[in-house]
């Protein structure tokens, strides 16, 4: 008998042992391919899995952030009279519009008026043009400047001087924020609306138009009345702040 006969027949791929050998070999190949694929995925950070719950796989930077809105104004803007800051008109408006609020309101201030401890709680609070030069962030997306009622007495004394201050203030605001959206809210009063109030509101409206800003008036019809004042009889209560927020929101709807 030759050596092949003595050793017996070689295993064939058609027999049971041959099939087991092929299965084992195939398994090793599959495992190797899986390991190779995982290694490639690790080396290539652009290989991503779909986001959970069917949401698109986008980064937070791609989604964008809420626009920053800076509010300049007097005690109404500061929120005096509201029971909490969350109920002042600026915060109500920012929440409704989806803005991030930066409130720079200072009691007693205006286009020409400055204030102190009795008005704003600080030793000195600057006028609107001073605030624009010193405090206004240059990267704001939106600027809302409101008020003027603290300048009523100055208007009665010299309306031309106040008009010039309004013009220069809004010109400086546009120069500081050339690409921002600017919203100008006119003066208001819960009392009689006479020539001083209407004259100053008209001056603010004209200045707003000159810098391509949106103007919102609060005197026709009057946004405030005696029943919308806080206990001090001078500042809006929660309902008054809500009324101002509603008027401004309506005024900027079609801007």
Mean pLDDT score: 82
The biggest beta sheet is recorded as: 5 strands, parallel
Number of helices: 11
- Spatial sequence of strands, sheet with the most strands: 2-1-3-4-5
Structural class: alpha/beta
Order of helices and strands: HHHEHHEHHEHHEHEH
Low-pLDDT segments: 1-63
C-alpha termini separation: 105 Å
Overall geometry comes to globular
Helix content: 40-55%
Domain SGNH hydrolase-type esterase: 71-243
Keywords: Hydrolase, Membrane, Transmembrane, Transmembrane helix
Protein name: SGNH/GDSL hydrolase family protein
Transmembrane segments: 21-42
Write the layout of secondary structure elements.
Elements lengths: L2 H5 L8 H28 L16 H4 L4 E5 L2 H4 L10 H9 L2 E4 L13 H4 L7 H7 L7 E5 L5 H6 L1 H18 L4 E5 L9 H16 L3 E3 L21 H14 L4
Parallel strand pairs: 1-2, 1-3, 3-4, 4-5
GO molecular function, one term: hydrolase activity
Keywords: Hydrolase, Membrane, Transmembrane, Transmembrane helix
Protein name: SGNH/GDSL hydrolase family protein
């Amino acid at each position: 008998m030759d050596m092949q006969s003595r050793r017996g027949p070689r295993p064939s791929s058609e027999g049971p042992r041959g099939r087991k050998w092929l299965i084992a070999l195939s398994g090793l190949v599959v495992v190797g391919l899986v390991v190779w694929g995982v290694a490639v995925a690790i080396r290539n950070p652009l290989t991503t899995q779909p986001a959970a719950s069917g949401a698109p796989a986008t980064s937070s930077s791609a989604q964008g952030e809420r626009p920053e809105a800076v509010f300049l104004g007097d005690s109404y803007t500061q929120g005096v009279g509201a029971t909490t800051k969350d109920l002042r008109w600026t915060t109500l408006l920012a929440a409704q519009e989806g803005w991030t609020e930066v409130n720079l309101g200072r009691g007693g201030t205006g286009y020409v008026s400055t204030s102190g401890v009795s008005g704003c709680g600080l030793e000195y609070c600057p006028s609107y043009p001073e605030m624009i030069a010193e405090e206004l962030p240059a990267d704001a997306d939106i600027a809302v400047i409101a008020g003027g009622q603290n300048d009523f007495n100055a208007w009665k004394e010299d309306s031309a001087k106040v008009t010039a201050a309004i013009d220069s203030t809004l010109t400086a605001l546009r120069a500081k924020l050339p690409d921002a959206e600017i919203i100008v809210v006119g003066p208001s009063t819960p009392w009689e609306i006479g020539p001083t109030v209407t004259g100053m509101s008209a001056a603010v409206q004209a200045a707003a138009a000159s810098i391509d800003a949106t103007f919102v008036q609060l005197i026709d019809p009057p946004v405030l009345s005696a029943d919308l004042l806080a206990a001090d009889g001078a500042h809006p209560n929660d309902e008054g702040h809500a009324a101002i927020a509603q008027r401004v929101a309506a005024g900027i709807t079609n801007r």
